[in-house]
Amino acid sequence: MKKLIAIVGNNADKSTNRQLIQYITNRYADLANIEIMEVKEFPMFNKPVDMTLPENVSEWAEKIEQSDGVIISTPEYDHAPPAALTNALAWLTYGSAYPFVSKPVLITGASYGTLGSSRAQTQLRQMMRAPETRANVMPGSEFLLNHSLQAFDDDGELVDKEKEELLDALMNDFMIYIDVNAQLLEAQEANRQAAIQHSWDEE
């Protein structure tokens, strides 16, 4: 069975993105063993001079490295992913941690408004393709859960069955994408070295 990491993209105690990740974890338990990562557990990024990573960052980097793929659920704050998520990604692309290189990634998102985090997802796609990240974000995929405060019933199930069917299709496609991606990793080590050697200070 595949091993996935599912990242809750904000640090709020009550989060519909956490609800979405929990829903995904439960609904697709027969497809994959999914472990939830909380970005609120990460300290504020401070670019340590010795490039030493905090222990929990190293642990999550290793888990992502060993996983078959990653799911990220992001809200939208001011047309962008929240600071807590970008902070976690900064840690996970620093020092010796480059766990996203060639890693299959599925981006989802929930928001209170009508657009369902569409602009935040667009920015997050760019971040996941950055020179020091180099993730393989699944193309043609977009799951936008709008009006998310009303999206779940008391049992944590999606109310909108069309959304449920769309997510079913995306998850099935993601399983296939992971398998296809595994056949396309000849350049993985070259990409990893390019990520390690990249420095914005030299731009």
Give a verbal description of the structure.
The protein is an alpha/beta fold and 203 residues long. The protein has one domain: Rossmann fold (3-Layer(aba) Sandwich), CATH 3.40.50.360. The chain has helices at residues 16-27, 55-66, 83-91, 118-128, 161-182, 188-197; strands at 2-8, 32-38, 69-73, 104-110, 136-137, 143-145. The longest helix has 22 residues, at 161-182.
| Strand-pairing-aware structural class | alpha/beta
Residue stretches low in confidence (pLDDT < 50, at least 5 long) are none
CATH superfamily membership: Flavodoxin domain
Amount of helix: 25-40%
Our Rg estimate from Cα atoms comes to 16 Å
**Helix segment count?**
6
Salient structural properties:
203 residues, six-stranded parallel β-sheet, 6 helices, Rossmann fold, single chain, alpha/beta, 37% helix
Question: What would you say about this model in short?
Answer:
The protein has helices at residues 16-27, 55-66, 83-91, 118-128, 161-182, 188-197, and strands at residues 2-8, 32-38, 69-73, 104-110, 136-137, 143-145. The protein is of the alpha/beta class and 203 residues long.
